[in-house]
Design brief:
Order of helices and strands: HHHH
Largest sheet: none
Helix content: 55-70%
Number of strands: 0
Distance between the termini: 16 Å
Radius of gyration: 18 Å
């Protein structure tokens, strides 16, 4: 299976990539939903922050950290560590 890494993975790594890619899409969607909720709050920024700063300016790093704490690390990180960290890595 030729992947975005410019390599062909076979066996366990090919299956792991497929499973991880779906999990990564769900992870990204959950994080994006949280970000969109915050962006909708911008109309209320005068009540939330007296300086009037946009919510996305100071909350996005916090929201991303919350997502990592809540949903865990991005799933592709584990795949990359196991299967794509070096060209000679074989997936166990």
């Amino acid at each position: 299976m030729l992947l975005q890494y410019g390599r062909v993975f076979e066996g366990d790594c090919a299956k792991k990539y497929s499973d991880t890619k779906i999990t990564q899409l769900a992870y990204d969607r959950a994080i994006n939903q949280q970000m969109e909720k915050l962006k909708k709050l911008n109309s209320y920024r005068a009540w939330i922050d007296p300086t009037g700063a946009q919510i996305t300016e100071w909350t996005m790093p916090l929201a991303r950290q919350w997502a990592v704490d809540h949903f865990g690390n991005p799933p592709m990180e584990a795949f990359e560590k196991d299967c794509a960290s070096s060209p000679w890595t074989s997936c166990a």
